[in-house]
Every structure is written in structure tokens, then in C-alpha cells.
Amino acid sequence: MPWIQRTKQEVVIDITLPLLSWLSVLVVVGALIAAAVSDFRFLTIPNWCPVTVAAFYLPFAYALNMPPAGLALHYGLGALIYLIGLSLASHGIIGGGDVKLLAATAIWTGLGMIVQLLLSVAVLGGAIALITVCLRRILL
Fold this sequence. Notes:
By secondary structure, the protein is mainly alpha-helical. It has helices at residues 16-42, 48-55, 57-63, 68-90, 96-109, 114-139, and strands at 4-6, 11-13. A two-stranded antiparallel ribbon has the order 1-2.
């Protein structure tokens, strides 16, 4: 385990690495909740939400001793999802804030879970959009 260092006389446990990863996850969860609330209430996602999600992958990856190639792969996947999303946003299929948030979230999932992420977002996002439209018509 990288956070345990053994010396001749004592065992020193460095809890900053696992703690750093947990703090990163907590910040990201907070940003995702803020994005969801803002999107539901105002139909906009503040720019700080996807920026926070994308930025806090760096300390998380550092805490897990991810090699630079793995880090580049994760951020490259986010960039690819962003470029694909931009083409969808230019045709009015998806919102710009949704594209940024999806790209930032893709950084966290990586290649192994990207298909599950995209399918989950499509199904759940469609259901939530339908419910939101129905509620707005009833309440307005």
C-alpha cells in the first residue's frame, strides 16, 4: 500500500493520500448536486460545476498514484465526449451545460464505464426531462 511507509524503527502511516481522494470525491458530489439543482430550477448549469468536476480528478488520480498516461487517457476521453457533445449541442439536441457536465463526468468514469455512463444519462435524462416538462405544464 503506497500510503504505508516502513522504517527500521516505526511504521508511519500517511493518511493524506486516501484522505485526498475522499475529499476530491466529496467536492465532486457536491458540484454534481449543485448542477442538478440548478438545472432543475433554472434550466442552466453554472460553469463552475463541470470545471470543479474535471479539476478535482487531478488530486484523486494523484492520491491513487495514477501514471501520467492514465491521466491523459481520462482527460482525452473527456475531450472526445466534449467534442461529440458540441456537435449535438449545435443542432439543439442537448444543452451546452449538459455537454460540459457529461464531459467532466466522463473523465471520472474512464473507458471501462463510458458506455454505461452514456446509456444511464440517456435513459435517466430522458425520463427526468419528460417528468420536468409534465410538471411545468401542470404547475404553470
